[in-house]
Amino acid sequence: MNRFSIKNLKKYFERGGYFSKKDRHLVLNIKSMDIPENLSVGLIGESGSGKSTIARLLMNIIRPDEGSIEYFGKSLGSLGKEEMRDYRQKCQIIFQDPSSQFNPRMNIYEILREPLLINGIDTGVEDRIKQTLELVSLPQDISTRYIHQISGGQRQRISIARALILNPSFIICDEPVSALDISVQSQILNLLYDLRFSLNVNYLMISHDLSVVRFLCDYVYILYNGIIVECGKTSEIFGEPLHPYTRELIDAAMLKTDDNGIFNQKSLSDEKTGTSLCPFVRCPRFNECGRESVEERKVTGTHRVFCNL
Ligand SMILES: Nc1ncnc2c1ncn2[C@@H]1O[C@H](COP(=O)(O)OP(=O)(O)O)[C@@H](O)[C@H]1O
Ligand SMILES: [Mg+2]
Q1: What average pLDDT is seen over the chain?
Q2: Cα–ligand 1 centroid distance for 134 (angstroms)
Q3: Which of 3, 102, 103, 270 is deepest in the core (most CB within 10 A)?
Q4: Mind listing the pLDDT tens digit for each residue in 118-149?
């Protein structure tokens, strides 16, 4: 069963304003995207491709302009009060920069207690907070401290603890380690990996880093400019990447050093306007393609690619 199922979704934002004429700009155009109940799914794409917009749509913070999002087969917009409460408890989100979402006047104990209070849970609060701090490997005495008194890695553990405190089955992680030092990144990813199996929770892991998703996810969606250009099981995406953008991401993930030992990361150039409907205008084989329109192609039952080549 699909936890989430997106169909024919379009989302527009207004662009411009102060100095230029406002126009409506299509930021997402998703024909179909499913998140099965028992899988962790990765969503990869460069900055501005629409990843956080998908996260906000799934959390029902914003609504689609066209198309539908279903939660266990029922339109997200039509959930009743009880269903909504259940959904709010089961689906949680953590962000790239946790400090901005916490009230600086609350101590850690109060930060962790808040979701319980909002959901009318007032028994066993202390035990629950203790257990949750244990789950994320933080010392109990951290609970009297304030958010500015702890490190970035500890802050991200607090935001994971806050997401876990209502026993969710699904957590959207929007670039959860992008703001952290490399050494802390792997600790947080290992924690998420362990929690996945010990608590039976699944993720939508949003990242621009393919290696994060390879480690944590069963299935991957590659997003480019608001369009899914390729999706498949993680093993299919890494074993047989078909879209030139997917290949570029895999190449870019491998840092190369030149003879002088200087990092020589392949740069991702800016988009230009092309004539084809394919969004990937910087494709190295753009001229070869020569097709005005691109159809989605099924490679296997689970692997799909949006490319003519
Ligand atoms: N509230 C908003 N109003 C106008 N434009 C927005 C808004 N939120 C996002 N956008 C635009 O939508 C596009 C996708 O943004 P986002 O989903 O944040 O991308 P990502 O998370 O992949 O970096 C970007 O071009 C961004 O500027
Ligand atoms: Mg984002």
Answers
A1: 88
A2: 36
A3: 3
A4: 999 999 999 999 999 999 999 999 999 999 99
Q: What is the pLDDT of residue 215?
A: 86
CB 176 within 8 A of CB 97: no
**pLDDT less than 70: residues of the chain:** 17, 253-277, 290-292
- Ligand 1 binding pocket includes 225 (Cβ within 6 Å): no
What is the token pair recorded at 298? 């099924």
Q: Which pLDDT does position 260 carry in this prediction?
A: 46
Residues of the chain with CATH 3.40.50.300: 38-62+78-225
Query: Which amino acid residue places its CA nearest to atom 14 of ligand 1?
Result: 50
Ligand 1 pocket check: which of 12, 27, 206, 221 to mutate, most ligand atoms within 8 Å of Cβ?
27
